[in-house]
Specification:
mainly beta; 18-stranded antiparallel beta barrel; 21 strands
Length: 411
């Protein structure tokens, strides 16, 4: 586990992979592959809950804004991905920031409220961050640095977060989580980095980011049997956008992995280690077709796996998505856009050992969709309706449809 983690950390540093805002132990502890199989069209849903690219510049240039993407995953699950950022003066030059991130999906589940104190200097902006949570031992503190800005050609953001600061770290001894004592014997830290280049020529955007959660070990006291467990995780992404031959070419990739383990302190059973990994490579081309119409074609290859050892296993789930997506977008008026398209995903699934939650197995998933965007003052709204085109393995009324909504507003 340690060798794999160290190798990924080194690769992340070489590639400059790290996120703009720090993640956390909750993001990696809730990261799950098997849960995604509850939604037989999970990848299609995640693509349609991706915010329109045309909104990106307004979001980056705004000091205070909110954006949310929401939609239907299953009959009982709702996709929520929300970001809120607010900035105000903290003296003549210093600034105070509030960032709220809410992510509730079939991939992970966490809610963060971050308070930041930012101090611009000639060599960049230094800052400190505090993340309060109900369990004091899970509260985080962080140090940040930024060179450039969201409106500059080059931008660099770095952070170093002291995860679960009050849980047995140095002089802090608040080890209670809920009604149990869970002191760390090896504390987690989280460095992160993000680099962005924005251009107006052939190369329009280069972006890379990632985060690394150092391996941790904690003891769970107060259960019928005292337990010891560990967690580590890493995630990274990259994006390249190039405009050539009247076409915007896009290449992106992402990878997230995490491992957790739990066993009695007397090592009387196996550690139940569960390893999860999901990575994807994506290619897209967008170009004008005629008049006010532009077309886009997209290919995406995704691999995901979850492997568990005894006593939780042995079990193994591996799945591969091969997705094709085409669409046309229309400019109706200056403030209204429409889109229409189709998606096809070939999913192959292999699993063995003790069963996971559920899986629909190897299958094809296809969908047609229509969408409409409109702007009202400083608020943009985008609605998408998807119609499933293949027979479903469960009962549906007439046709199986799924709806999605995006909203972005600046203040």
């Amino acid at each position: 586990m340690r060798a794999a983690a160290s190798g990924l950390a080194a690769l992340a540093l070489l590639l400059g992979l790290a996120p703009s805002a720090s993640a956390g132990t909750e993001q990696f502890s809730t990261f799950d592959i098997a849960v995604q199989e509850e939604d037989d069209e999970s990848l299609l849903d995640h693509l349609l809950t991706r915010a329109p690219r045309a909104w990106r510049l307004e979001w980056e240039n705004a000091t205070s804004a909110i954006r949310t993407s929401q939609g239907c995953l299953t009959s009982g699950q709702w996709f929520i991905d929300t970001d809120l950022k607010l900035r105000t003066a903290l003296g003549q030059h210093a600034r105070f920031g509030l960032d709220i991130r809410q992510n509730q999906t079939d991939r992970s589940n966490y809610d963060y409220v971050d308070f930041s104190f930012l101090f611009p200097t000639r060599i960049g902006t230094f800052g400190a961050m505090f993340r309060p949570l109900y369990d004091k031992s899970k509260q985080d503190f962080g140090l940040t640095y930024e060179a450039g800005a969201d409106t500059s050609r080059w931008q660099l953001q770095a952070a170093f977060v002291f995860e679960d600061t009050f849980n047995n770290l140095w002089e802090f001894r608040q080890t209670r989580v809920g009604n149990q004592s869970e002191p760390y014997t090896r504390h987690p830290y989280e460095p992160s980095l993000r680099v962005v280049h924005r251009g107006a020529g052939v190369v329009r955007r280069l972006e890379a980011g990632g985060t690394y959660l150092t391996p941790s070990v904690k003891t769970l006291l107060g259960s019928p049997v005292d337990l010891t467990g560990g967690l580590w995780g890493a995630s990274g992404y990259g994006l390249v956008e190039v405009r050539a031959a009247h076409t915007l070419w896009e290449l992106r990739g992402s990878s997230t992995q995490a491992a957790s383990a739990m066993q009695p302190v007397d090592f009387s059973t196996g550690d139940g280690r569960t390893f999860r990994r999901q990575w994807a490579a994506e290619f897209a081309a967008t170009r004008p077709l005629f008049g006010r119409v532009e077309g886009e074609a997209r290919l995406l290859y995704q691999s995901r796996g979850e492997h568990a050892r005894a006593p939780a296993g042995p079990s193994r789930l591996d799945a591969i998505d091969r997705l094709m997506m085409v669409e046309a977008r229309f400019l109706v008026t200056g403030e209204v856009h429409a889109r229409i398209g189709g998606m096809f995903d070939r999913i192959t699934v292999a699993h063995e050992g003790m069963p996971f939650l559920q899986t629909y197995g190897t299958r094809n998933e296809s969908r047609a969709f229509v969408g409409l965007s409109a702007r009202f003052g400083r608020v943009s709204i985008h609605l998408v309706e998807g119609i499933e085109l293949d027979p479903e393995p469960y009962e549906v009324w007439l046709v199986h449809d799924k709806g999605f909504m995006h909203l972005q507003a600046t203040f």
